[in-house]
Design a protein that fits this description.
By secondary structure, the chain is an alpha+beta fold. The protein is 22% helix and 29% strand. The protein has 8 helices and 20 strands.
Length: 332
């Protein structure tokens, strides 16, 4: 058995039948797609049971930087690099654009799958292409930004689970000019003179609200911020005047899942060995020796309470796996 406790930030005591740590692309030739699960840092996953197949832990950590004639940089980052460590390194080299994503847990390779975002920036905005390894055909392929089909916490790689693709490299197009994006709450109204100042502020904001996975088991934001019609958002805003509302597109608005959860009475609650974080209701934490079924039960309770109060169905952001592989939340 392969111990998965070090490879899931929820710190759940789960195992897989077999496993291997991958440090370069050549090693992938020895594995096949049948019942293989790919993990990076394990910061956005929830195991509901021991996994019956093979887990491949991605630790491909190559990195190269190419300066272009237009003053921009092509950064080719190995998918096993820790995203926050990459951001810190790039700022030191005078390469900017990813600052708003500072301290997001997880690896470079996991980030495009979820199209992770924070403080007004999504990682898909800065990606030029993604290199993948097909575990079925044993070939490498390059996906352009358009082929990645990035959406809100979504991508081609997340939707097309039938294709056994392991992201090996992410190519970013970044800038040598600092152009701060500070329109989001917490950053708005602040003048940032340097990228490090912006990074420091983002880190400060995240630390105030989110628990450190090294100290408290969690998978970051457990739920997506719901996207609703402008009509529904307007109706709710009239009833709850302090409700945060953000424009999403021409017909939709984005609501704050954390606010909805708090107002539904679920801030800081505990169920067995799990609970919601006292400073950010969006995060479910392991308060001790949590069992997978306890996490599932609490999440379902929160979803029910929010729906009962607001008529809004929350959608989990974490990817969920049972003994056979990834499973949709509705099947749990």
């Amino acid at each position: 058995m392969f111990d998965l406790a070090p490879y899931n930030t929820f710190r759940l005591n789960v195992k897989s039948a077999d496993g291997a740590v991958i440090t370069n692309v050549a090693e992938l030739d020895h594995f096949h797609a049948d019942n293989a699960l790919i993990l990076g840092h394990g910061s956005d996953v929830l195991f509901t049971d021991d996994f019956s197949g093979t887990v491949l832990v991605n630790q491909i950590k190559s990195l190269s930087v190419e300066k272009l004639e237009n003053g921009k940089f092509l950064v080719k980052a190995g998918s096993g690099l820790i995203l926050d460590e990459l951001i810190e390194s790039l700022i030191a080299q005078g390469i900017y654009g990813l600052e708003n994503l500072s301290l997001i847990p997880g690896t470079v390779g996991a980030a495009p799958i979820q199209n992770v975002g924070a403080y007004g920036v999504e990682i898909g905005d800065l990606i030029k292409e993604v290199v993948v390894y097909d575990l079925q055909r044993h070939i490498q392929e390059v996906y352009s930004k358009e082929q990645c089909e990035f959406g809100y916490r979504d991508s081609y790689f997340k939707r097309n689970k039938a294709r056994p693709l392991l992201i090996t490299q992410v190519v970013f197009e970044l800038s040598s000019t600092f152009n701060p994006k500070a329109e989001y709450s917490g950053l708005k109204g602040i003048t940032f003179k340097t990228p490090q100042e912006l990074r420091n502020k983002v880190i400060e904001l995240r630390k105030c609200k989110l628990p450190d996975p090294k100290l408290v088991g969690n998978a970051g934001s457990f739920f997506k911020n719901p996207i609703v019609s402008k009509e529904l958002a307007s109706t709710l805003k009239q009833k709850y005047q302090d409700m945060p509302v953000y424009e999403f597109d021409e017909t939709s608005m984005k609501l704050a899942a954390g606010w909805l959860i708090e107002k539904a009475g679920c801030k800081g609650i505990t169920h067995g060995n799990v609970g919601t974080w006292e400073h950010q209701s969006l995060v479910i934490v392991n308060r001790g020796e949590a069992k997978p079924h306890e996490v599932v039960a609490l999440a379902k309770y929160i979803m029910a309470e929010v729906f009962n109060k607001f008529g809004i169905k929350l959608e989990p952001e974490v990817r969920t796996y049972d003994s056979k592989g990834e499973v949709s939340w509705d099947r749990l």
